[in-house]
Specification:
With 326 residues, the protein is an all-alpha fold. The chain has helices spanning 2-12, 18-40, 45-66, 97-100, 114-122, 125-156, 160-189, 191-210, 217-222, 225-228, 231-241, 248-278, 289-325.
Amino acid sequence: MHCLCLAYVADHVRPRRRAAAFALLSGVSAAGFVSGTLTARFLATSSTFQVAAAVATAAALYLRAFLPDSGGVSCSDDDQACDPLLQASSSSASSSDEELSPRLPPHKAGLPSLSDMLTLLTGSLAMSGAATITFFYSLGEHGLQTALLYYLKAQFGYSKDEFANLLLIVGAAGMLSQLTVMPILAPILGEEILLIVGLLGGCTHVFLYGIAWSYWVPYLSAAFVILSAFVHPSIRTNVSKNVASNEQGIAQGCISGISSFGGILGPLIFTPLTAWVLSETGPFNFKGFSVLCAGICTVIAFIISLRMRGAQSSACKKSIVQQEQA
C-alpha cells in the first residue's frame, strides 16, 4: 500500500519537490506509528485489534471520498497546475531533473512480468543502485531490529517497557526529521546528498548500539535517527525521477519488494547469529557482535551510495557537455 501512496504523490508533485513530499509522507506514517504505539498502552488487548480495524476502515472511506484518481498523469517541472501538496520552488534552472535522468521505455499494457521488472531495475544506474542500497539497508535495519532487544537485555538488563520507550524515541525522532528537517534540506541539498548523509547517520546509529558502554548510550544512538530517516524518502525520490509516469507504481512496488526481501532475510540471518553470540558457549565475550554485523550491511549501502553519486555526477557532466556541443 505504501508504494501506491508514493506513486500517487509522484503523480501530483513536481520532480524537484518530490523529496520533500516523500519525506512528509514518511513523517506522517511515522506519526501514525508513534500514535498507535502510545494508544495501545491505554487499550485492552482485545480492543486493540478492533480499534485498528476501525481506523483502517476510516482510512479506506477517506480514500474513496476525497482522493481523486490521478489517471497515471504525472506532473512535470513546467506544469504550473501541479504541486497541491507543496508550494512551488522559485528557483529556475536550464534543464529539469527529468531531462538529466535516464528514462526507461514506456511499460507495455497488461500485467508486468518478472523480466519487465528486472529490466526496470537494471535499466539505469540510478535504478540498479537504488535497488542494491535498499536491499543492504533493509537487511541491516531488520537485522538490528531482530537483535536489539535481546542484546540490550543481555548487556544492560533492559525490560520490554524500556525497549518500547526506546522505540518511541526512535519513532518520534524519525517523525520530526521527516516532517520538519528533510522538507527544508531537500530543495537545497538534493536527494543524493541526503541519501549519503542519512546512510552515514544510519551507520553511526547502529555502531553506537553495538559498542554501547553504558545504559544511556542506546538513547544517544537513537538521536541519529534524525539523519537515518532521510534514507527511505531519498531512495524513493531517486527511483521516482528515473521512471516514466506510467511506471511509478511498478517501480515503487519493486523497491518495496526488495525491502521486504531484506526484511525476510534479516531475521533468518541475525536470529541464530544473536543467539550464538549471546549464549554461554559463545565464541567471544562481545555481545554486540550481531549488531555490528547489521552495521556492516549499512556500511555497504553507504559505499554504494558514494559510488553511485560519483557515477551520476560524471554522467550529468557528459550530458551537459554534449548538449552544449550540439
